Amino acid sequence: MHFTVLPSPLHTLAEAANLVIKTRYGLADGIVEQQITPEIPLQPTLHWKTKTHFIACEVAERPLPVSVKVQFADIVQTGQPIRIIVAYPKNNDLSLTEYQNDIKSSKNLGIGYLGIDEEYHGEIEYPGVSLALRIDTIDTKIFKPSLKPLVTDAYEHYMKDGNPAVGLQKLGQVVESIILNVAKQAKKKGVFTSARFQPPKHLPQSHLIDDLIAEDIIDIPILGSCRTFANDRNSVSHAPKSRKEAIELERKIRDSFSIGKRILEDLPAKIKERGYKLQL
Amino acid sequence: MESSAQLKQLRVDLIDPNPENPRTIFRPEEMDNLLISVKKYGVQVPISVYQEGSRYVLIDGERRWRTSKKLNLLTIPAIIQSKPSVLNNLLMMFNIHALREQWDLFTISNKITRVIELLTEKFGIEPNEIQLSEETGLNRGTIRRCRLLIELPERFKKIILIELEKPKSKQKLTEDFFIEMEAALKTVKRNAPGLLNGNIDEVRDNLIGKYKQGLIKSRIDFRMIGKLATSPKNVEFPEEDAANALNQIFYSLDSGIEDIFNTTVGVLYDEKKLISNFSNVLRYIRNLTEEERSDEDIRQSLKDLQIAIEEILER
C-alpha cells in the first residue's frame, strides 16, 4: 500500500487495519487515500465500497482524530450510508482522560474504533454505525421512571453496541407491550369489545391498534402514530439490495426510532387521561 | 530561475508531493490546527508547483495540499512555476522555508548532504559554510548544528525521528539534546582525544540513560562537559583530574554532570568569571570621562564600591 498523506510512522498500522477490516467484512484491500464520493468531505486513509454501504477507515494517533471530528456533521449531512472506523495505536501518548473522552465521544457519534497493539494485531472495539442511522444521545429525564431503563437499553443497542435494528426492535417491544396492556385493562373494564382480541392469543399489533382506534379506547392521534411506527418497523426488516435502498432503509430506521421515542414520551399521559395504568 | 509564474485553481488530485522535500515530519497537532483553519477559511496562501506532464509536483505547501486532500477539497490555489533543476528544486524549498518557518533541523540535515553533493557536482568543489549559507538561506549556526546531526550514527537518528513525530510538548530526546551532547563530545575529542577512543557510542548511550533517569537535569548541562574538557587549558585544572571527572560522567551510571562539575572545576570557573567581571569594572572606571567623574551619582557608586572593597581587603 502506498500512502502519501498518512504520516510514515502510521503506515504499518494502516496495513494492519486494512487486514482487520477486510477480514471482518469479507472485503478486498481498501482503496488508499482517495475520495469516496465527491460530496463526502473526507478522504480517509482507506475505504471500501460495498453494494450497499461505504466503510471508511481513518488511521490516526487517537480514537477520535480532528479530521473526523470536524468533518463529522458535514458527512452526516450527506445522508450517505457510511460507517467510519478509526484505527489507532493502543500504545499512544494520550492521557487516560483524553483517551476516555475520545472513546465516549466516538460512541455518542457512532464512529467506530479499532485498536492496534505494538505487534500490529488489532480488533474492532466498537464497529460504529452507518452515519445515516445516527441519532443524538437521549435525555431519559423526559420519560416515566419505569420506561427510562428500557429506553436506555434500546439506545445502547442502537448506538453503543452499533446495532440499530436491535435497538429499534427493543423500542418497538416496549410500545407493543404498553398497548397490549392498555387493551387488556380496557377489556377487563368491558369497554374494549373487539372479538378478535383474545389474550393470550396473538393479535398482530396493527390489527389491535385498528380495533383500539375503532372503539376510541385512548387518544386516536397517538394510536395512529403507534400504527405508523409498527408498520414502518415491519418494513425495515428486509436487507437492502443497493446503496439507494440502503439510504432509504436507514433513513426509515432512524426516523422510526425517533417516532418510537416520541410515542414513549407522550403515551403515558394519554393512557392516564382515560384512567388506565402504564403497565409493561 | 524564471519568473513566469501563474496563479491557478488546480485540482487537488492532480498534484503529487515532491520526493526531494526535506520536510518529512508532519506532526499531527500541527496538521490538525491547519485542518481546522482550512476548513474554516479555505487555503489562503497558494501552494507552489511545477508542471510534470499532465500532473503537477509540489515545490512548497505540502501541509496545505495534504490538508486539502484530507478534506476532499476539489481545488487548491497554486502558483505554477517552471520546472526547476534538481539542485534549484532543493534550494528553492530551503529558501522558502528559511524565510518563513523553521523546519525541524533533522529534516534539514537529511537533505543538506544532498545539497552539498549537488553543489559540489556543479562547482567542482565542496561548498564551504558561507557558500552553503548563501545558497540555502540558512544561517551558519544552523548549518553547523545540522552537521552535528548528520554525523550521528543511524540508530541515534532513528531516536530523533521517533521523538520528532511526537507533539513538541512530549518530546524528550530532542534534536537540541543531541546537538548539545554532540557539541560537548566534539570538544572532548578535540581536547582529550584519548577519552572517547572507540567508546563514543557507549558514552552516548550512558548519557542518554542518565538524562532519561533525571541524573542529567538539563541538556544545557552538556556545556559543563565542554568546560571540563577545556579546564586544563582555561583554568589550569590538572589534566589527569579532568580526565577522571569526565570518565566518571561518561561511565559511572550514578552521577550526573552538574555534581561532578561543581566538585571539580566549578569554583575555578566561577573565580575566572569573577576576575573577568572585576577587570571589566576596572576598565570602565579607568575609561570614565571628566564629566562622568564629576557626576554625583557615579561618585556615590564608586564610594560604595570603595567601602565594599576595603572591607574585604582589610580582613
Entry keywords:
heterodimer; A: 280 residues; alpha/beta; six-stranded mixed sheet; 8 helices; 49% helix; B: 315 residues; five-stranded mixed sheet; 16 helices; 5 strands; 61% helix; extended
Question: What is this structure's SSE topology?
Answer:
The complex is a heterodimer of chains A (280) and B (315).
Chain A: H1 11-25, E1 31-32, E2 46-49, E3 54-59, H2 66-77, E4 82-89, H3 96-109, E5 112-116, E6 122-126, H4 148-160, H5 164-189, H6 205-214, H7 220-235, H8 243-273
Parallel strand pairs in A: 3-4, 4-5
Antiparallel strand pairs in A: 1-2, 2-3, 5-6
Chain B: E1 6-11, E2 15-16, H1 28-41, E3 47-52, E4 55-60, H2 62-70, E5 75-81, H3 86-99, H4 105-123, H5 129-136, H6 140-150, H7 154-164, H8 175-191, H9 200-213, H10 222-229, H11 231-234, H12 239-251, H13 257-264, H14 266-286, H15 290-293, H16 296-313
Parallel strand pairs in B: 2-4, 3-5
Antiparallel strand pairs in B: 1-5, 3-4
Helix pairs in contact in B: 1-2, 3-4, 4-6, 6-8, 8-10, 12-13
